[in-house]
Amino acid sequence: MKKQRRRVERLWKAWHGRLGMYGWDIRRTYHEGDFITQDGLPSGPAVAVTSVDWRYKHGSIAWNLVEVAKLDDERLEYCVVHEIMHVWLHEMRTRGLDHEERVATELAWAFLRTQLAAR
User: What is the pLDDT of residues 23-40, one digit of tens each?
Assistant: First the structure.
């Protein structure tokens, strides 16, 4: 599981600055399988769950390392960017998680395509 944690951290460091996360305090936790979310619910087979208190620029991303191990590097990079998008979008959640999820997905792919074009 140490290897999986290092994979996430390497990508976090690569994208943290690119996406302007310097003013945020984002705690990352690592779990060897499913875990209980802050809402008291089982995480299920999710790769990660993000919780945010946007008023104070605090958040946490809980990573399921069993699920992380199933991903190739490209898909894990997408997941890291996707979870960062949840940090940015959380305060707009009044429209519901479904809308936030779709926008986080679209933005993550947009940022990844921009980065790939620059390489």
Answer: 999 999 999 988 887 777
The count of structural domains within the chain is 1
Is 87:55 a contact under the CB 8 Å cutoff? no
| Gap between the Cα atoms of 67 and 87, Å rounded | 21
Three-state secondary structure call for residue 70: coil
Q: Are 80 and 74 in contact (CB under 8 A)?
A: no
Beta-strand (E) ranges in 1-119? 25-31, 48-53, 58-64
Domain with 104 in it: 2-118
Instruction: Give me the amino acid identity at 39.
Output: D
pLDDT digits (tens, 9 = 90+) for 47-95: 999 999 988 999 999 999 999 999 999 999 999 999 999 998 888 776 6
Backbone phi, then psi, for 34, in 5-degree steps? -60, 155
